[in-house]
Design goal:
alpha+beta, three-stranded mixed β-sheet, 3 strands, 10% strand, globular
Length: 82
């Protein structure tokens, strides 16, 4: 996911619209935002369904996408000297 810096938003939107898995769509967009890809802001409206989805057990819940992801994605980075 870190290497997806040059994806075309229009093509990504089309692929996400064709995808039948709500969990995959949510996880893809969550990771794109996590890695701060600029193109994610240009993605057109994608149907993310309703309800909660579980990616991993005992993770942390991301309210925006309604998925439970590994805790390592939700922990704040430690600041040296604190």
């Amino acid at each position: 996911m870190e290497g997806f810096t040059t994806l075309r938003p229009k093509l990504v939107s089309e692929l996400l619209e064709c995808c039948n898995s709500i969990k995959v769509k949510r996880l893809f967009l969550f990771l794109a935002e996590h890695y701060n890809h600029t193109w994610v802001r240009s993605i057109s409206k994608v149907d993310l369904g309703s309800g909660k989805r579980l990616v991993v057990k005992n993770g942390c819940f991301d309210r925006k996408y309604g998925i439970t992801v590994p805790k390592s994605f939700c922990e704040e980075p430690e600041v040296a000297g604190t």
